[in-house]
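Sorry, explain these tokens?

___
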Amino acid sequence: MNYYIADTHFRHGNVMVYDKRPWDDVDVMEHDMIERWNKRVTDKDDVYILGDFCWGKKKDWLRLLSLLKGKKHIICGNHDPKNFPQEILDLLAEPPAHYMEIKDGDYYLGLCHYPIIAYHSDANPNTILLYGHVHNTIEFDAVNEAIKAMKKKCQEAGFDYKGNLYNCWCGFFDWQPATLEEILANEQAHQKLD
């Protein structure tokens, strides 16, 4: 099974206020998020982390990656290391990437930390971009407005733009990884464009 999650921000105290997270202590947040993750994910599952995994140092990354179940794939975010030490790479299913394309069931997925309005095969209804970065902020609202404007302009020009972008911010999914089916069903993660 594949799972997806963005912007966990382990060890990041300020994000609790920024996201209005239900914790006021970094250690409690970490404990609860690890518990939620491990209740869902098995070591046979693939977890695609769409950036901003951990605010901590190498020792924090090593500890957290060791505690969390699943085969972990990192799509780099702006708060992730520029160069990953070998000890971290050894705990990942593959080297970190800034963009990745995979197939999940009948869908082709682009995976990126950042929202990409014009993405590969964006006219195909079975092609979806999963992203993070904007959490649930005015930037997320701006992304949705840009998608609506793009769809309108493309339709006027006779191009069939689908605009299937889904925000995988962990707060939309009870602070734990989500399946593609759960992401597609979550109206918070994707505003209807029709």
The chain has a mean pLDDT of 95. The first strand starts at residue 2 and ends at 5. The radius of gyration is 17 Å.
